[in-house]
Amino acid sequence: MHRFDRAISAVALAAALVVVVAGCGKSSASPEEQWASSVCTAFGDWKSQIQTSANEIKSQLQSPQQGMVASIKSDVQSAGTATNKLASDLKSLPPLTSDQGTQAKQQVNNLATQAESTVNEVKTATSSLPADAGAAETVKALSPFATQFQSLATQASSTLSSVKASSSALKKGFQDADSCKQFNG
After folding, report:
1. In this predicted model, what pLDDT tens digit does every residue of 124-136 receive, in sequence order?
2. Is the whole model's pTM more than 0.90, yes or no?
């Protein structure tokens, strides 16, 4: 039994050391870095899904096949779900405790609202397409939204740039956050 107690003590000590060592390394992130990381993670996930949906829709329109409208509606739904998640993620972020943090929060909330509005318009247009719509009818119904999505992507980049430039602490937070590396190029 004595050996068993020593073994348990050794395991407990090893577990404690693992916890202590895991805490070592990179110092804890600043509030600005944590906030920037949340923003960039939300934008990165959204951007990836929007690009995937856009590429699939473009491919379907270039090579029309039976069931194309249902497939496009599914891609629009995926883009809408990603946009709603982006909006929810951004709107649920608490503002940083500074004037610049409050302003940055307002900017990302405005972008989230704009994104939701754009996707809702596309969903409405897509849902009104008949199931047997051809490529020409589908392109005609959806082509006006191509410029809106391009504008939304431009606005997203502009918003991130504006937020980063609003204070040196936020700029550093965006530079330090690993999830923001994709936007720091």
Report:
1. 888 888 878 777 7
2. no
Contact 122, 145 (CB under 8 A): yes
Residue 6 main-chain phi, psi, to 5 deg = -65, -40
Tokens linked to 134: 């051809």
The letter for the amino acid at 81 is: T
Residues found in the chain: 185
Task: Concatenate the DSSP letters of all residues of the chain into one string.
Answer: -HHHHHHHHHHHHHHHHHHHHHH-SSPPPPHHHHHHHHHHHHHHHHHHHHHHHHHHHHHHHHS--TTHHHHHHHHHHHHHHHHHHHHHHHHHSPPPSSHHHHHHHHHHHHHHHHHHHHHHHHHHHHHTS-TT--HHHHHHHHTHHHHHHHHHHHHHHHHHHHHHHT-HHHHHHHHH-GGGGGG--
Determine contact, residues 100/167, Cβ cutoff 8 Å: yes
Q: Which two tokens stand for residue 146?
A: 């191509």
The pair of three-digit structure tokens given for residue 11, joined into one six-digit string: 């395991």
Tell me the two tokens of residue 78: 């995926």
Q: Which amino acid is at 162?
A: S
The first and second tokens of residue 132, run together, are 């047997």
pLDDT tens string 56-92: 888 887 787 788 888 888 888 888 889 889 999 999 9
